[in-house]
Amino acid sequence: MSGTTITPEFPSAVPGRLRLTRRGRIVFFGIPAMLLLAALLTLVGFLNSPAKAADEATALRATPTVTVTVQSGQSLWGIAGAAAPERDPRDVIVEIIQLNNLEGGRIVPGQQLFVPAA
């Protein structure tokens, strides 16, 4: 060999362009986007939730009620009309259902119901 040295040539270390696969793009962009969406939905939920029950403590008083025993042939409409004749029976029925945790608004004879007092 003649006195020349052969040195292998290596390409210079030039930073290349980052190439992401489809899965890499989903991970890189999708997960932060989902986290941002979850944070926004949580914020919107907090802003729209009815967190405040009343403006004043006096508005938090319990609804005065009376106990009524359901007779055969009675309906919620009739009970609501008798309990508060000056009010709309539909509003009174809603209160009766809420006060008694009635499923589907069904009542049976002999059942004790809490009814808002007039």
TrEMBL record:
<protein>
    <submittedName>
        <fullName>LysM domain-containing protein</fullName>
    </submittedName>
</protein>
<dbReference type="InterPro" id="IPR018392">
    <property type="entry name" value="LysM"/>
</dbReference>
<dbReference type="InterPro" id="IPR036779">
    <property type="entry name" value="LysM_dom_sf"/>
</dbReference>
<dbReference type="Pfam" id="PF01476">
    <property type="entry name" value="LysM"/>
</dbReference>
